[in-house]
Amino acid sequence: MKWIEKNLTYVFFQMILLAAAISMGRMGLFVSHKYLSPFILVIIEILLLLFWLKDFGVPVWRLHKLLSDCKTQKDIAENLLDQNAKDVIFAKDIAEILKARMKQATLENDTELLDKQATLTALQSQINPHFLYNTLDTIRGQALVDGNREIAKMVEALAGFFRYSISSSGDLVTVRDELSNVRNYMMIQEYRFDSRYQLKIDVEEEEEIALDYLIPRLTMQPIVENAIVHGLKDTMENGEIIINLNLVGKDMIITVSDNGCGMDSEKLNEINERIRSERSISNQINDIQSQSRHSSIALTNIHKRIQLLYGNDYGLNIYSTSHHGTDVEIILPATSERMGRT
């Protein structure tokens, strides 16, 4: 901000000096005219200087004052685009430059944030996961020795879920592997909540080829978790989550449905608008601090990941009716080739 004010002040006074120099040059021409007295020439030059100040000097000074009253680049852009500032010299041009700079700064901030998250993830991944795997295998083995097959089964599911979640084998996995991870997750939840929920996976025989198609890792499980935490939160028994897979033309449509409480049209529209918003990554992460928005953060991230990989024709669609459950539709290209964007 200070450099803008300093430079504008410099320009303002340089323009006055330039005008004075021009005036002196003109005065020399007028002096050579034998019919005009020096007094009249001075009056004319003063009038010329006043006209120049009105047309150029005053707008530059107003711009200097306007910038001095602003504290942020956003304030400057808003004030320069204000109706009262339309006669300030270069107001619109400066406002557009500042808006472009603020947009670039936001992108740079998002990039820096992602870099920090990647660094944190890398540091976290240095924790040796084999210690946990070996511990879980030991617990599972002891459970089998003691004849407690339920505990052994749950520990095996937990180990599989954990191994899948932190695997570094790539962002894209097969639908088959993704469904296996969902089964492990649901097995843990069914044990925790005494079978209040059950999972059904519906894949027609002619569409089993889709099990070998690719899907971004951890696409389904967060949606299933969202259904349990929000859709089925008040369900004491017979909670149901159904995963249906269909091939439509060149697309693969996976629908995750629950028979929970659903939501009204206002809430549904709010969530659909939020996952499609153009808000910056940093603002989305800040939303996690608000519990009321936490339910849509995972959906937003999944939607944006899919669009980043495959384009705007793909992503999530959400349908819901109050007291009649929710359907989350995942639209992906039907392919086993790693064709996503990098």
Blueprint of the fold:
Elements: H1 2-31, H2 38-68, H3 73-80, H4 91-125, H5 129-145, H6 149-165, E1 172-174, H7 175-192, E2 197-203, E3 214-216, H8 220-231, E4 239-248, E5 251-258, H9 265-275, H10 281-287, H11 294-310, E6 315-320, E7 326-333
Parallel strand pairs: 2-4
Antiparallel strand pairs: 1-3, 4-5, 5-7, 6-7
Helix pairs in contact: 1-2, 3-4, 5-6, 6-7
Structure, described:
Helices cover 59% and strands 13% of the residues. It has eleven helices and seven strands. It has 342 residues and is of the alpha+beta class. The two termini are 38 Å apart. Mean pLDDT is 76; it is low at 1-8, 26-35 and 288-293. The chain has a five-stranded mixed sheet with strand order 2-4-5-7-6. The protein has two domains: 2-106, no CATH class; 197-333, Heat Shock Protein 90 (2-Layer Sandwich). The chain crosses the membrane at residues 7-29, 35-53. Keywords: Membrane, Transmembrane, Transmembrane helix. GO terms for molecular function: phosphorelay sensor kinase activity.
Short description:
One of its GO terms (molecular function) is phosphorelay sensor kinase activity. This protein has 11 helices and 7 strands.
